[in-house]
Design brief:
With 437 residues, the chain is mainly beta. It contains three helices and 24 strands. Helices cover 4% and strands 32% of the residues. Strand 12 and strand 13 form a beta hairpin. It is globular. The model has no long low-confidence stretch (mean pLDDT 91). The structure holds copper (II) ion. Copper (II) ion binds next to loops.
Length: 437
Amino acid sequence: MTYSKPGFLIPRRSIEGQEGEWVKTFDPPKESPPTPEFLRPTNPVPAFVAATVKGAKVSIPNTQRVVLMHNESIEMWDGEKLKFFLLSNPDVPVAKDGSFPGPTIRVPRGVVFHGQVHGKTQPPHTIHWHGLEPTAINDGVGHTSMEVGEYTYQWQPNFIGSYFYHCHRNTVQHFDFGLYGFLIVEPPDAFDPSDGKNVGGYPRRTAANLTQFPEFPGFVGGDILSGDPHAMTVPYDVEAIWVIDDLDSAWMEQADHAHQTFPKHGNKPGINDRFHNNDRGKEDFFAFHDFNPDYFIVTGVNFPGRVGSTVSIRPGIKIPMELNSGVTGMQVSVDARINQTILIRVECAAYVKIKVTFPVDVVAIARDGRAFGVPPYGKYNHPFTINAGTPLELSTAQRMDVLIRAERPLNSFAQIEYRHHLSNAFLLNGRIPIIVR
Ligand SMILES: [Cu+2]
């Protein structure tokens, strides 16, 4: 039995003529079908952004817009220009030409979310809403879900926490080249100003069970099903987002076309597709098998050093409110005051191995969008302390939310250690300032 003379032959069914159905592997996409079971969207955030961000508008009521683009040059710390693929939001002037990472989407728990997604250049693309629970057609996993063209994804977030969204078509390339952004599910009333709160600032709340950690004030326990929007949440005064990434400039220079692992369809799509039919010209097949990153990044900020070095980003780096759903003051480098509650949302977007080490004890409250000790999973886990200096390992796509409350001033760094995924060779120590005054 050989490849050319298999012992079994599994007949394949052509997908020709089914472009409007569940599986989209057409290049280019031939249809942009409507969303099945379309509900009226109820997300208040696009209107909040339009009211808060200069020049922003709502072009589709209650709907977040996402455009996927490619070949946008970004200058790295050493002057090298790399070609990224970028996410943009055409409703927000600062975000319309794309950003790296893409704009952070904040959304209250329980709303009907609509994401109107358009692949502007070199589709097909998808958006996968990582960690949320859409129906299969709205899940955005390439080959098994909707690839766009254009499509309105529909889902409802049910768990407060840290997520992200990214293209899931030829993920190894499209995700690595920049088609991702952070996504935060907040309490149901996070964008409701009716009780006089500043919905575009701090304090904000996130899910946690801090029964055993009384040093964090304002924790509300109780029953999530009671309807109390703050049940099982804690307020935080300072928020930082660390999306840890690595880039191989050789990949980005040699494989700048979005179709470099896409098949060419024969005359029977789904049957005689040929990956290596692209072995010439701009769409030349590229294997993406040998990853050797030489640029290291946290939330779009370069760690300014070569392989082998230990380098720091500067203090005081914040995320522009235009790229954070209108919320002002989110940080990359942490700058807080004594006895403030600091929430750090850590995500690994790197392909190599990373270890995160904090200079103070932190309390881990949630992993991958699920808060420890919070029903319905509450009986299976609980928040825990990660002692200062104890490394936290994360692999691709994992998130961990941690809290800090410093009683004394602190002027130190968290450290991100990058090691090669195969050889374990040391690549870089990236340091992020944590200042408490
Ligand atoms: Cu894509």
